């Protein structure tokens, strides 16, 4: 087997999540999309912006990054693999 410099790519299967948000948050997201269009000259739907906004938020949360580095919280997948016996 070859010893490639590039490791196996991670799972890139998208996940669809449906949520309900307040009217105020909905308006704020629309306002953000409007400001985005004014800033970059390209219109993007709110639904297209949200995943990138979430990534920026999570990457900017230092407490969350620290907790993940320290192994907490365990993901649902890793809990299932650890054989918790609940399934």
From TrEMBL:
A Pfam family: DUF2274
Top-level taxon in the UniProt lineage: Bacteria
InterPro entries: DUF2274
Protein name, entry field: DUF2274 domain-containing protein
Native organism: Mesorhizobium album
